[in-house]
Design a protein that fits this description.
The protein is of the alpha/beta class and 368 residues long. It is 50% helix and 16% strand. The longest helix is centred in the middle third of the chain and has 40 residues, at 158-197.
Length: 368
């Protein structure tokens, strides 16, 4: 399969150092690697704030247009959640250099990764819905732009009329996808209700993407679900069960999509069906990568998303994972002990797994 040549555009504030900007860019580079891993060209512009119309200045547009032609760039990725009009203006500017050029923002990149990893019909529907929600504002922005280009007073250009047709088709398609997802959601709710009636306790694994959630799920349930060192390797909700230590009690456990910084509300909403397992769980395991220098920042991101979902007040066990990959200094600190409702584990080596089961059992037994 031919790799894609991608150009990444990032705006850096004049007061931010190269080192700090590289740290901020690391996650986006990981996303691009997950999507394709092809040739990458990076372009930076030092600005206090983005250009309101085109995100980058006219000089940088000329520079990128030249690079698109010289290096056969196929996709330009803007490292932000861009305005629809900004993406459209950039697309128009770059068409001259490559008529097939694609201009994406950060959300587009995530959605394409989602499409790559979708396995089930439900995940594919959720991605379709997220794409439609993301594309909707672009059509409305496009209609305004074409309306201005149409000219005349009270007149309607051909382009504007076509956009109106596109918008009607978009609304119709969105309704169809929502209806199909609603059926799956109803089925999900019935399953959850049946588990409750049968007395099953449920625990849901949550966390930042690539924190090791699926590896932990596999070792707890003796399953072999797809787990890889890349972002958003898991999109579908997986359900298994564990028998708690010193008990014959069977507990249902689920693995769900990982979270990420600046994840738009529209994407979270689109995956509400998958996240329903977490919303209705009796307790949550928040998996945290202790080998990650941005551990605390990512922990706060997950906590904020849990708050947005209205499930921040559920019983939460913080699972400090990847002990085996932590630095010697971090291991030394962790070995001295951690606060209550936290436990150090390694899903790769099995360290702390039996103790985690005991902690889950204690948490669930304290709840009615």
């Amino acid at each position: 399969m031919k790799s894609t040549t991608i150009l990444l555009v990032d705006i850096v504030h004049p007061r931010i150092s190269k080192e700090d900007s590289a740290i901020n860019l690391k996650e986006t580079l990981s996303l691009i690697e997950t999507y394709d891993g092809g040739k990458l060209v990076e372009v930076f512009e030092r600005r206090v704030e983005p250009h309101p119309g085109t995100y980058i200045g006219s000089g940088k547009i000329e520079e990128i247009s030249y690079l698109i032609q010289k290096k056969n760039i196929e996709i330009v990725i803007i490292n932000t959640i861009a305005k629809p009009t900004q993406l459209y203006e950039l697309l128009q500017a770059f068409w001259v250099s490559n008529p097939t050029i694609q201009v994406w923002d950060r959300v587009d990149l995530i959605l394409h990764i989602f499409s790559k990893h979708a396995r089930t019909a439900e995940a594919k529907l959720q991605i379709d819905l997220a794409k439609m929600r993301h594309m909707g504002p672009r059509m409305y922005g496009l209609a305004k732009t074409l309306g201005r280009q149409a000219g005349g007073i009270g007149g309607r250009g051909i382009g504007e009329t076509n956009v109106e047709l596109m918008k009607r088709h978009w609304r119709s398609q969105m309704k169809q996808v929502k209806d199909e997802l609603a059926k799956l959601t109803t089925h999900h709710k019935q399953q959850l209700e049946r588990r409750r009636r049968e007395g099953f306790k449920t625990v849901s694994i949550v966390g930042y993407t690539n924190a090791g959630k699926t590896t932990l799920f596999n070792i707890l349930t003796n399953k072999k679900n797809y787990a890889k060192n890349e972002l958003f390797a898991t999109l579908d909700s997986a359900v298994g069960h564990i028998y708690l230590t010193k008990s014959t009690t069977k507990v249902m456990i689920t693995d769900t999509i990982g979270f990420i910084q600046d994840l738009p509300t529209s994407l979270i909403d689109a995956f509400k069906s998958t996240l329903m397992e977490s919303i209705h769980a009796d307790a949550l395991l928040h998996v945290i990568d202790v080998s990650d220098p941005r551990m605390n920042e990512k922990k706060r991101v997950v906590e904020q998303i849990l708050t947005d979902l209205g499930i921040h007040d559920k019983p939460i066990i913080n699972v400090l994972n990847k002990y085996d990959a932590a630095t010697s200094a971090d291991k030394s600190a962790l070995d001295k002990g951690v606060p209550a409702k936290m436990i150090v584990v390694s899903a790769q080596t099995g360290k702390g797994i039996e103790e985690l089961k005991e902690m889950i059992g204690a948490e669930l037994s304290s709840r009615p």
